[in-house]
Amino acid sequence: MRVLLIATNREARPSYAVPAGVAYLQTALVEAGHEARILDLCFEPDERLAPVVAEAVAGYRPGLIGISVRNIDNETYLRYRGNLGDVKLVVDTCRASSSAPIVLGGSAFSLMPAEIMRLLDVDLGVNGEGEPAIVAVADALAEGRAPDGAPGLLRRDGDTVTTAPAARVIDPGSIVAPRYFVPDERYFSTKVVGPQPTYGIQTKRGCAFRCSYCPVPSIEGKRFRLRSPKHIVAEMRQVRDHSGVTRFFITDSIFNLPRRHAVAVCEEMVAADLGVTWMAYTNPLQYDDGLTALFRRAGCETLNFGLDAGCDEMLTSLQKDFTEADIVNATACARRSGVRIVHSLLLGGPGETKDTVARTLDTMHRCPPDVLTIAFGIRVYPQTPLWESLGGDGQRADVDMLQALFYVDEALGQADCEAILTMIEQFIADHPRILVRMNFDPERLAAEVAGSSLRVSAQDRVSAQEGLLG
């Protein structure tokens, strides 16, 4: 079976992302005896999307087309941009160019698969991890039978979509490193993606934590499935040798936990002496100087602490498992090791006030990072504790989940937002050595943050359906 895999993601912030997940699917298909080619649309301009897809389909003549949906939108309040319109264009072009079945998948698709299948008018989709499913679908079609029973497979008949439990790769040891995909060199050009171009790699799948807004447990599962350190290092070596990549991004939701696994991975990296560097998302728990020194020896350049807040009140509200004291300790350990530090804040959550923001900024003053990103408004996804607390899971018939929904605490009014902006501006003035990036439009914030605590993003904030019809 000849399979065309189309990576539709073109999101550029905070940087372009190599479609490593699609590369795993390609490898799984080839290892199972199929042909598989990747069409990466990342750097294609709007006017070239349809022609490029049509040319690829006509030239390759696939028997199956897989389309990856990585992001529904850019998750940015007041600077919103949706992505499903691009995917719809790709689907329509494929259908006009070929009679091959189309199957949707990807992390964003798995968040609300039935809704996206109806919106994009596609009859097949994969909920969860795609490696076992795409192979099963290709096997079935190659043998001339229906792909019923493929892991995580959803089928649509009109408005009715059959449900299926999310597919999981039960044995992480069965994950085979990408062996055939060579990423576009523009992914690693600092002129295109900024100062830290990287190739994404996972050391585990799933997440045992339950941050209030995070959909990762619903996508990958609620427990860690740990990959072998030897397999991880072998994958890094394979990607390095095959693609010339020397910088990696460990894309686990949390790299350093379980600690014993992170230590084992780093020890394997040190022993292998690959000559590569990496960055990772991390949690402030269980840090000490020995751990950060090991990270540094293993090639770590940057640790991105997904803090979201810096005061205990808001950390509890967001269902974080660490405290302000943990932030202070972890930052100090990372600073002593010479690792670059990124702190990320997510303001406006349940219980946020100008006083909690002031305390969070005070923690940033006492634990200064090299880079501080500040987002305002929490993107609300189904199957998360925040959505459930708002009456989700079918209880909110008034809300279209394909809209860009952002939570901002209803107690925050215009005056509060103006005060918060003043505090942020003062923090920036007082800390010239910290690179501060605001992932929202400060000029529109105070005027827009008003009304309901469940807010739809401003202008460009039409629903996905309305945007596509337009």
Automatic annotation (TrEMBL):
Pfam families tied to this protein: B12-binding, Radical_SAM
Keyword Cell membrane appears in the UniProt entry: no
SUPFAM superfamilies recorded: Radical SAM enzymes (SSF102114)
Cofactor dependency: [4Fe-4S] cluster
Coiled coil: none
SMART domains registered for this protein in UniProt: Elp3 (SM00729)
Domain B12-binding: from-to ranges: 1-148
Keywords: 4Fe-4S, Iron, Iron-sulfur, Metal-binding, S-adenosyl-L-methionine
Radical SAM core domain mapped to chain residues: 193-409
Name used for this protein in its record: B12-binding domain-containing radical SAM protein
